[in-house]
C-alpha cells in the first residue's frame, strides 16, 4: 500500500482526475497552506488533496451565529467540520496539482489546480495551521468491457448535451474533440453531468472504470429522458467547475 501525507483542502464539491479546479483562497488556514506550498521548488509538483465534505461547512463561520447571536465563531484548521474531521469527510478524494498559486496584495490567493490521482483518506491531522492527511493512492483498474462501455457513454453523453442545450434554448458547440481513453471518458462525463455531490462522489469512488461507465450510462439515459419532457432548464455551464469560495 502506497501512502502519502499531503495538505488537505475540504470542499463542498468533488474533484475528478483531469478536472481543472480554480480556488479563491481567503481563510487563514488555507492561506497558510498556500504559503507552505509556495516553498516547494518550482520544478516539483505543489500537491494537496481535495476531499468532498460529507457533513460540515466549507467556509467556517466568521461572525456570531444563528439562532444564538452570542455564539462565537469556530477557529482553527478543522473549523466547520465538527469534533472529528475524518468522519465529516468522504473517504475518497483526489490529489490536486497547483499549476498557479498567486498571492494578491491583500494576502489572499488565486489558485488554479488540476486533479491527478484518486486517494483514500486514512487519517486527518489538525495539529498544525492547516489540515494534513495520510492518504492511500488508488490505482485505476479498467474492469470488464471498459472500451465498449466508453463508446456507449460517449454516444449517450452527446445526446445528453443536445437535449440539455435544446431544453435551455441554447446552441451547442460540436467542435470539441472528446477523448477515447475509457478512464478519461469516465472522469470527463462524471465531472460534466449535472448531479449532486453524493452522486458525483459515488462515481469518483467506483471500484474500476467499467463500473463508473455503467453507472454513468444509466444516469445519462435517465437524465436524457427527464430533460426530454421538460420545456426549459436553469442556466448551468456544463463543462465548467464553479470557483470555490474556500
UniProtKB/TrEMBL annotation:
Residue ranges constituting the Lon N-terminal domain according to the UniProt record: 6-224
Stored InterPro entries: Lon_prtase_N, Lon_prtase_N_sf, PUA-like_sf
Source organism, top-level taxon: Bacteria
Chain residue ranges for the region called Disordered: 60-81
Gene3D superfamilies: 1.20.58.1480, LON domain-like (2.30.130.40)
The protein's name: LON peptidase substrate-binding domain-containing protein
Organism field: Streptomyces rameus
